Amino acid sequence: MDLTEEQKDYIKNNVAKVANLNELTQKCFRDDDLDGRTKEGRAVRKYLIENNIDYKTTRRKPQDKIELNDSQKDFIIQQAQEGLSSLEIAKLIFPKKQVKPLSNEQRTVLAHINEVNPDFVPSQDSAAVNDYVGPKSPSRVLKKINDATGLALEESKLNRQKRVCVEKLQINLSNSRFLKIINNYLNKSDRELFEQEFIRLSWDKPDLTADELNLYLNVCKEVINLEVVSAHLNKLNDMFDVADDQTEMTVRLAEIIKAKSQEYHQCETRIENLTKKLQGDRAERMKKSQKDSASFLSIVQMFQEEEERKNMVRMAEMQKKLIKEEAERMEGMAEWKARILGISQDDAI
Predict the structure, then answer these.
(1) Deepest of 156, 238, 270, 341, by most Cβ within 10 A of its Cβ?
(2) What is the domain partition of the chain in residue ranges?
(3) pTM for the whole thing?
(4) pLDDT tens digit string along 167-194?
């Protein structure tokens, strides 16, 4: 496609003023549906290139390739072998940058891991770049329940009560706070532990209030914190054993281990307190609910007893009425009267 002289003049006069190639094409041809990929856009681009005219595009400028030094490469492999994800490693290597999932920094780290060992893929990477999505079908919810609890529930054999539990859990797994918390975990194993703990603790409690649901989420968070602190303690203890002959280092490590141990026990205490509160509050609520149910049941029983009593009285009155009618009928029978008096029809005649 060839441009007219008028179009060429417009391009030369406005290329510095117009934001990008798409807008320049649209204004040149007076058609808002055009962009740089259409034949008109390609014609404009061709003219600009042939005349060495600089222009802007909406395409992002490719990011510069990050070059890793030997120290960084060794650190990446060491941390990957210890279970850290490429995102977590990138954050450690580039502390001054805001490293995000699928950023240039993370992809550089992951590329180096795959270059050294193509078969080694940290399991956490998939969790670091994907948001959690709640199950959309009861069968998926049931599988998660079985995985978390060790049960072997079958969808076709569920009674009404368990079906209600599955339906309620499906709703809770799409709860906004649940999603916010679980998506904050970049480590896949942490995500799985959080999800399974929440399911294990709450799946058979479809009557949870909003406040109780939040408390269970807090318990699950503390469980993750407990495991993280435990892992830190294990690493610190290993470092303490290695640095046994370095007095200054062992003193510093001993202080850190002591602080971590206190953090561990504090986490345990919070879990215990939250669990007691949940069990106590729910037990009290269930007790009150049972009391109310018992009161209602007693009213129903009293009503049923009253109805039974009225039915018995009604039946007695009906029997009495039938007896009376039969007696009156017999009273009117001459033969019956004669027999009562001891004379027969022949004697009377």
Answers:
(1) 270
(2) 5-50, 70-128, 131-288
(3) 0.49
(4) 999 999 999 999 999 988 878 888 999 9
